[in-house]
Amino acid sequence: MIEINGITKRYGNKMAADNVTFTVNAGEIMGFLGPNGAGKSTTLNILTGFLSATEGSAKIDGIDIFEDPIAAKKKIGFLPEQPPLYLDMTVREYLNFVYELKNCRLDRKKHLKEICDVVKITDVADRVIRNLSKGYRQRVGIAQALIGNPPVLIFDEPTVGLDPKQIIEIRNLIKGLGKEHTIILSTHILSEVQAICDRIVVINKGKVVANEKTENIAHAVEGKRRMTYSICGPQNDVLKLIKSITGVTYAEVIGQRDGDSIAYMIESAENIDIRKPLFFALAEKRWPVIGMDVMGMDLEDVFLALIQDRSTKAKTGKGGKN
Amino acid sequence: MLAIYKKELRSYFVSPIGYVYVALFLCVSSLLFTYTTLYSGTCEISVYYTILLYLFAVLIPLLTMRSLSEEKKSKTEQILLTSPVSLFSVIFAKYLAAFTMFAGTLLLSCLNFPVLYVYGEPNTAILFSTTLGILLIGSAFVAIGIFISACTENQLISALLTICAIAATLVLGVLANYVGFTPLRVVLKWISIFDRFYVFTYGYFDLVSLLYYISISVVFLFLTVRVYEKRRWA
């Protein structure tokens, strides 16, 4: 549905986007992730035709944004980083304006009513946008993107500056929209991506450093396995025993948990499962394990790892994961 | 395009700026009209329009100063530039809205003219041709104003630069008369927006002048498009 091929944007010597390539399939919600200033907005602005690219091409549903911008723009609903709202209009006036601007052919009353219902702005429809709270303004921005029912929706940091309740509402809204639309969601909030996206593209310093399904993203970086154990037994002896197991690279006491057990954090090398040998060793000493928890790498770790990975790998000349 | 045009016209009247413009224009033009024709006991309107032209330097920036600069500042231009509308139609709609305001108010002020028929015998052809000339000059000034508002995101700077630009084009023609060096004088006169206006005050419908003013409008709208293109490609 969306094909971005080798998009490069240069501002003088600064590379805002460097050979960015990815595709988004129809019906997918893609999380576009990266730290501030990584080139997310630049890429999205190019994709929506607001900026041009120095090199590369971008296609929406097979239509090149540079060759036939008007036809391509018709297929996109875009919510920029700062919602483009005319503060002196009422919500209704604004939506009507956008409806006419996009040259919509749908039944106006019905279409606008549906959108207002979906993003829940029906009760503020006659209020002036200037007087709306940030959360409502954001929703009006989303409503604007939905007008004309475009197959592709692009949201640039839609939940920035909202309170937690609003964030959840907007997320659910986007998730709901994902059933009928292809969505790119740009953000630097990791949990957001984990919660709603099917696929994640990570960008850093203008380059794509990962492009994976959400559930596979953790595998994109080879990490150590990390576990916490709660064990009853003399602290120093237990620690010594744990460290003696082959494959354990690191172990430390986290603290006293319930009753007489003590919690340990254990790291092991990749590809070695220390759980079985550890069990037998502890059983032999008759030190019972009260609790155990395998800590999967969460997105936050993956993200940081990817970003660092890239710079270190670039130095050794191996290139990044893709 | 129609959507942007309608939105622009509306925006003149939800903020005070449209009312201020219309009121100021009608007030000043009526006063000027009274003094230059009725008090002077003449049906000649060329003096009236000549003085009014100078006032355009202050009046027209009121219409154009926020046109594109405000959109840039509030980032609303993003919706215009990412919607399925060509860049030229966005800018042309902006221009057209400002020109509609200008032309509408000018035509309203023409309601003064019937009074002349009560006290004298004005030449109707001159009334028409002079008003047409003023409309054309206004169109050029509006285009210049739109161009300047595209270059900055500060309304005040936009207004000041437009005042300077319009004043400069007006003064250029006057200045030309004092230039001794003939080739330079010819060139200055040729550029001067003012100079071509006199043809209209004689009641002529001069095609060359008409084309001249229309070309200036087109050139500045084209330059405005270039400003946006350049920013896109920067």
Can you describe this structure?
The complex is a heterodimer of chains A (322) and B (234). By secondary structure, chain A is of the alpha/beta class. Helix content of chain A is 34%, strand content 29%. The radius of gyration of chain A is 25 Å and the shape is elongated. The two termini of chain A are 20 Å apart. Residues 314-322 of chain A have low confidence and may be disordered. Chain B has 234 residues and is mostly helical. Chain B is globular and about 55 Å long. Chain B has one domain. In chain B, helix 8 (124-151) crosses helix 9 (155-176) and helix 9 (155-176) crosses helix 10.
Under CATH at level 1, the class of the largest domain in chain A stands as Alpha Beta
- Low-confidence blocks of residues of chain B: none
Which class do the helix and strand fractions of chain B yield?
Answer: mainly alpha
Query: Could you estimate the helical fraction of the residues of chain B in percent?
Result: over 70%
**Corresponding CATH architecture of the largest domain in chain A:** 3-Layer(aba) Sandwich
Mean model confidence by pLDDT of chain A: 85
What is the domain total for the residues of chain B? 1
The residue-averaged pLDDT of chain B reads: 90
The CATH H-level superfamily of the largest domain in chain A is P-loop containing nucleotide triphosphate hydrolases
Oligomer: heterodimer
Radius of gyration of chain A, CA atoms, in whole angstroms: 25 Å
Question: Descriptors for this entry?
Answer:
heterodimer, A: about 325 residues, Rossmann fold, Alpha-Beta Plaits, four-stranded antiparallel β-sheet, 10 helices, about 35% helix, elongated, B: about 230 residues, mainly alpha, 12 helices
